Amino acid sequence: MRTAVSLLLFSLLAAPAARPAVEDDFDYFVNNWNVVGLPDYMFGARITPDSEMLLAGGAAIQVRTGRGLAPLTRKLGKRAMEGWLPVIQVADAGGGVRYDVTFWATPLPDSRDWRKAFRWPGETENFLCWISVKATNASGAPAEARADVRPVPAAKPARQEFATAGKHTREYAWNWTLAPGESREGIARYTFYPISEATRYDGAPAGLWLDRTVSFWREIVAPAARIAVPCRKATRALLAAHVCQMIANDLGVVHGGEGFYDEFYIRDGAYQVMQLEEAGLDEFAARAIHRYMAGQQRDGRFESQRDQYDANGQAVWALWQYAKITGDRGYLERVYPRMLRAVNWTMRERRKAAAGSPFHGLLTAAPADGEYLWDGKHHIVGYDFWNLRGLLLTADAAGTLGRTGDAAFLMSEADEYRAAIEAAWKRAGVPYFPPSWETAGTHWGNTETLWPTRLFDARDPRVAASIEFLEKDFTGGYVEGTIRWKSPKMEDAIHPYMGAYTVMNTLVRGEAEKVAESFYWYLLHSTAANAFPEGIFYKRRFAWSDTIPHVTGASNYAILLRHMLVHEDGGDLHLLAAVPDWWLEEGREIRVERLPTHFGPMDLLVRGMARGVAVEMTGPLREAPRRIVLHLPESRPWLNARAGVSLDRRPDQKTRWDFPAVVARYRSSMTPEERRKWEALGL
């Protein structure tokens, strides 16, 4: 049942958009995969670009419609109900009949406690996958409608863990004669893992279980932090990102994807945990951070990908960040020894090079995934940056806990580490920070200079030079507003979520218009169901390795939007640091409620008025920031200034960045041949 809270929470999503066809229907990807599933179950049911549902046992469940029983195709597209719910909808029309196909997932109907089973696989890992096919006669004369649903061999090979799962054999078929305006509906039901009693759930009422599914997802996000902005696409994509995160979780552990990267990664997981924390999904965040403890090795180093050193610093950051967002001193006391063990490994490892070595004081050479340097012969800049950050954050934790001796020692060690980094940069002979100190590789961890915590001054010329090099020079510069990723096997690739780290650098540097532009290019690279990718072969509009929905891609989107609105920078709290100017126009509203921050929860209401902007704020409730800074464009006066909040004026943005605008820019860049090609695919 829809609660009053749920209706209030989602009322803004029903507001009309200026150009709903673009915001609702544009889909960048040829391979627009999606997934339906339940939080913390080990697997979800993936939906292929041709709208086949993949189940255990190697089966793809295919839907065919129309008098000729044609399979659904990529051209028909896919949308999520309300733009974010894991209820996937496909529409097909032809011969005067419209077919509306809906996919969703629920617990098994005979679960002892179906409410608990929605949230956690306490009784079984199996769940029920539903397919509704509704035919409506849109013509003025009687019409025949046909549809069927059947298992077919999956084009994508079954996963290894399903090799002995049995087979799905159930088929459904419907043939209706419809009067003008009449609708009929057929329901197909498949357990994710095959069972011997294929007809066991035939009597389960589809309408009831669809209502329960919608209510469950609304209710699970209702008490969490609320962020609603004037852009409907942006607001819905944030909710879809939260759903993506919860479905990909496996028994409380953050995983990188569903059907791909389906395992725990420390470095990706750190950003995923941050999304859960900042979303106010407290139970999910608490479970997720617990998994980090098992990632610590006997020598103190944190590791999830063999011999890759960035995880050590990122795990320390994840532990520190959780303490900052919760304010839980007891937790910090418990994890501080683990942080100390991790940085002790850093101190030992960076002393292995002899005093005369050009890499003295740095971490040893090691393989790198993100930088695509697998030979183990390069000294990775991002590894040094992340382990330096680990030292600094452990020193901060020591100070918080009153361990002044530890804090002083760790800061001294960090100063020595900085000196080694400075010397290595000078030897590299480039004005920016390279991927490795040998300057080889593609760019990854070397871009995380001001984010997620500052390692350098925002005005450091090397930070600016790094941003400029990536935007303009690296393998030809940005494409579609997005950073390049290069390897010998992956030409013409861009990488939106990795580029988000550079976008955050520009946010810290106060470049609001550049952030607004980058934000909308990020949104461009999503599906109509608001799912995000990993890397992209942009000439083919193809997410590599079918990595949609990609959980880190979703988390970096969620984090970017949150920090455009509310951003912690050391002891300072910045409000509206980098929002599009049109979000502040007369009649617009930005609403932030129950938002966790480093200083405690807060609410923020921003209303665009005829004469300027009214800002109402409650909190933060736990401690006072050193400064609270409100950022507004010069043309929008602050109508209700309050004590304790300073105003930072920035220039008005020269270009209006919104979703229709970025889609129009993208389409205008196409050649006539490309335009015809994408139109033929429904793109």
How does this model look, in words?
This protein is α+β, with helices and mostly antiparallel strands and 683 residues long. The chain folds into 2 domains: 31-221; 260-549, Glycosyltransferase. It is 33% helix and 18% strand. The chain is built from 17 helices and 23 strands. The strands form 6 sheets. Strands 3, 4, 5, 10 and 11 form a 5-stranded antiparallel beta sheet that branches. Strand 17 and strand 18 form a beta hairpin. Helix 10 packs antiparallel against helix 11 (404-428). It is globular. It starts with a helix and ends with a helix. Mean pLDDT is 94; it is low at 1-20.
In short:
With 683 residues, the protein is an alpha+beta fold. The chain has 17 helices and 23 strands. Strands 3, 4, 5, 10 and 11 form a 5-stranded antiparallel sheet that branches. The chain has a 5-stranded antiparallel sheet with strand order 6-7-8-9-12, with helices on one face. The protein has a 4-stranded antiparallel sheet with strand order 13-19-20-21.
Q: Low-confidence stretches at least 5 residues in length (pLDDT < 50)? A: 1-20
| Overall tally of structural domains | 2
CATH topology of the largest domain: Glycosyltransferase
> What's the overall average pLDDT, rounded?
94
Percentage of helical residues? 25-40%
- List how many beta strands DSSP finds: 23
What is the terminal-to-terminal distance?
A: 37 Å
